[in-house]
Amino acid sequence: MSDPEVSVVIPVYNEEDVLEALFSRLYPALDALGRRYEIVFVNDGSRDRSPAMLREQYQRRPEVTRVVLFNGNFGQHMAIMAGFEYCRGARVVTLDADLQNPPEEIGNLLAKMDEGHDYVGSIRRRRQDVAWRRWASKAMNRLRERLTHIKMTDQGCMLRAYSRDIVDALKASREVSTYIPALAYSYAQNPAEVEVAHEGGRRASRNTRSTSSSA
Ligand code: UDP
Ligand code: MG
Fold this sequence. Notes:
The model is unreliable at 203-215 (pLDDT under 50).
């Protein structure tokens, strides 16, 4: 089979609560695009039913589904980098598993790429994050723009699309500490951003969740 036009890379860590909902929205959204695609799930050492659910989904849609299994928990960055190693698409979209960013927006990112951009970031239309998180994010943005000249309106949003050239540069860099979207941006020649819906998801973040549950 020839390489797909689009690879969607999704890191998965203990996402059993949301995976069914993700499957039921992601596959129809991609089927509707009429572009040849593959979805590469990277299971980052989940200790819940996530790997079993990924196996089941692979059996349902083997022609477009690939699953990479880590034997431990190495973090989101390593999971995405592993997805980049395995994916074959001419374009690569990263997406969180927890539905904080709607999979239905992938088509909009790809349409923006069709205009000639090699990097398309996304800006969440209606941020549902708590106030301190918005403030911290603004402060980080100002600092980064001063230090690196990287302009990224919404750095917390992992829904992004990269051209094959950018993904190959990321792989070759062997960088393990830099935030992937920022590193990718530094390799981009013609970056762009699109506005996407933001759903808040199951949680604003693992950190806020653990603080609130222990309070
Ligand atoms: N994730 C992962 N390994 C981890 C933690 C998270 O692969 O050790 C995945 C997680 O399943 C999700 C994405 O990375 O698809 C973002 O994680 P999370 O939603 O916890 O982060 P936040 O919303 O705070 O950015
Ligand atoms: Mg999240």
